[in-house]
Amino acid sequence: MVMKQLLEVFDILDDSAASGIRMKNYLLSINPSANVEVFPLTGPNGSTDVIRILIPGKSGKTAGKAAPTLGVIGRLGGLGARPVMTGFVSDGDGACTVLTVAAKLLDMQKKGDILEGDVIIATHICPNAPTEPHEPVPFMGSPVEMHQNNETEVLPAMDAILSVDTTKGNRVINHRGFSISNTVKAGYILSVSEDLLDIMQTTTGQLPRVFPLSTQDITPYGNDLYHINSILQPATATEAPVVGVAITTETMVAGCATGASHPADLEEAARFVIETAKYYGSGKCCFYREDQYRRLTELYGTMKHLQTPGNTCGIR
């Protein structure tokens, strides 16, 4: 279980002075040799601290070997919406989950349980993100633009990506816990990974849950199209397969709501990510069928235009 790490991470993030340096110091206290990078990122609405953690595997690229690298990205606008809202907001669940994963993997590494492949974890820490006026509660904004998030969090070394994001402000997901998406690769929405479904039902003890995606959801922000949220935005910046891991609720919950984070759900999602990292790095988990993807491109060509802003002259 990872509840210990989750509560420690949450305690650091649920703070008006939360910062990348504080989180880095916590991770180094677990494993002094941890590879943790923190740097500020400034956007049109403020600044945030980007944090990236590289956890080397026994047979990973950092060891000069060939095991694939899993990227784990925590998506959010911010951890808090101060001064409009007081405390940790629901929108921060993605960051809390992936940093919990980092803490647990570092603890495992220190105790001799080292994964086969490298794992790269990336998110950002902002305790006072802006909000957008809305009734009955304000929406969460972000201090930086989406392309800045992608440039700093979606790295070429990532062979596959799990994107973890709070996904509660909609009517299409109506259960509490977490849900996964179809695999998205280079503009294609592919079949759901059977391996990920197996891992999900093992870690939850329940039937796996998959949330619906539309073509709009996998296009870049800024095109005036509806998106369920930013969970699949990493897929617009890479050719690697991307799967969304959505933290969900039965009812609609605003991203800027406080007191809306459920520890059991975040812990469950974190364990799913950790188990996926184990299997993916050892070659026992596939995000998509390469033969099916190859056949799709043979029949229908590239869909990479869906990773672009599209026709800037307007809709025809």
Question: Would you write up a description of this structure?
Answer:
- The protein contains 7 helices and 10 strands.
- With 316 residues, the chain is an alpha/beta fold.
- The chain has a single domain, classed as Aminopeptidase (3-Layer(aba) Sandwich).
- The strands form 2 sheets. The chain has an 8-stranded mixed beta sheet with strand order 1-2-4-3-7-10-8-9, with helices on both faces. A two-stranded antiparallel ribbon has the order 5-6.
- Helix 1 crosses helix 3.
- The relative contact order is 0.18.
- The mean pLDDT is 96.
- This is DUF1177 domain-containing protein.
- InterPro entries: DUF1177 (IPR009561).
- Pfam families: DUF1177.
In short:
It is built from seven helices and ten strands. The chain is α/β, with parallel strands linked by helices and 316 residues long.
